[in-house]
Amino acid sequence: MKPRKIILLSACAILLCICILQAVLKQGDKIKSFKVSEKPDEITIKTPATEFTLTKDGDEWLIGDKKYTGNTTTIESLINSASTLKGLEKVGSLSNDTIMNRYELNKEKENIVTLKKEGKVLTEIHIGKTSSTGSQSYATIGNSKDIYLMAGNLEAELVKNMNDLRSKTIYKYNASEVNAVSITTYDGNKQNNFSIARLIQGEDTMWTFSEPDKELDEDKASEWFASLASLSTNKWYEDSDKPTDGRHVLTAKIEAGKDHLTLEVYEVLNDEGKVTSSYATCNNTPYTFGITGSTINKYKKDTGYFEK
Q1: I want to staple 195 with a disulfide (CB 3.0 to 4.6 A). Which of 26, 95, 166, 210 is the partner?
Q2: pLDDT for 308
Q3: Pick the residue with more confidence: 164 or 31?
Q4: Whole-angstrom distance, CA of residue 47 vs CA of residue 25
Q5: In whole angstroms, what separates CA 133 from the centre of its chain?
Q6: pLDDT band at 27 (very low <50, low <70, confident <90, very high)
Q7: What three-state secondary structure class fits 120?
Q8: Contact at 8 Å (CB) between 98 and 196?
Q9: How many CA atoms within 13 Å lie on the side-chain side of 74?
Q10: What confidence tier does 273 reach under pLDDT thresholds 50, 70, 90?
Q11: pTM of this prediction?
Q12: Beta bridge partners of 171
């Protein structure tokens, strides 16, 4: 092979290597990780309409000025998402107002999620619009003006309201801690009530039933007590929107451990007399909460159900 041809082929090979290297470096430059290694003790979520803060108190998270108890699992998921962001591509800068408005990173539309520890900002995420695919988002991090296309729907993952983050647990006990249940149901001016109690002493259990002429099915009673050992809600009501016009349908009094709980249940009816929603109160929380029909039915038993 002629020297001239060898030199030409070598030059082509070197050029190809340079092109490959540039492509690799360019790809690496496009993807940027935004990681937070420390765990926050404070989270602020700010939207154009609202702003509230979560603070860590021991093992619990407390939400807002009223210090609602937070759902630890949901909040930890939010922290993990905020601490492991991935910028897929830099698409512009906040210095350009047209681009800033295009990606909804102006003050009128952006959402801001801030993680802090002992007063120090760990990360501040400015979240703009979601991409057309719904699986990516436009955002900036901290004081940087660089706008990135981020992996994930950050609005869905990080921009939560208080109801999203609050614990949905009203009460929770071990099944063996439920000692007595008294149920009163209301139907117009009619009231029906009964009670069942048990005393556990070692391996022996003594049951009492408010219907002395009926033999209690102890297995059914035990299963019922277990089903009432915990209660969760699907919705918390704020003072401004809590219903007050419901029909009182049930009172449940439960002795569990050293606690005496009183649950009051109400149904909201439409003009045709059909139930449209239900809500409840419990003496261990000052807040009104939603309750489903299937949950109400767990409490709403008649004495025939327990008859052997």
Answers
A1: 210
A2: 87
A3: 164
A4: 37
A5: 24
A6: very low
A7: strand
A8: no
A9: 19
A10: confident
A11: 0.77
A12: 231
CA Rg, the chain, in Å?
A: 30
Per-residue pLDDT for 19 more than 50? Answer: no
Number of other CB atoms surrounding residue 266 within 10 Å: 21
Q: How many CA within 13 A on the CB side of residue 272?
A: 3
How many Å apart are CA 46 and CA 26, to the nearest integer?
Answer: 35
Residue 7 pLDDT: 55
DSSP string, 20-50: HHHHHHHHHHH-EEEE--SPPSEEEEE-SS-
CA 269/CA 212 separation, integer angstroms: 36
Q: Rounded to whole angstroms, how far apart are CA atoms 168 and 230?
A: 11
Query: Helices (DSSP H) in 154-291: which residue ranges?
Result: 154-158, 162-165, 218-227
Name the token pair of 70. 């937070």
DSSP 181-193: EEEEEEETTEEEE
76, two tokens: 């930890």
Distance CA 199, CA 205 (A): 6
Q: How confident is the model at residue 236 (pLDDT cuts 50, 70, 90)?
A: very high
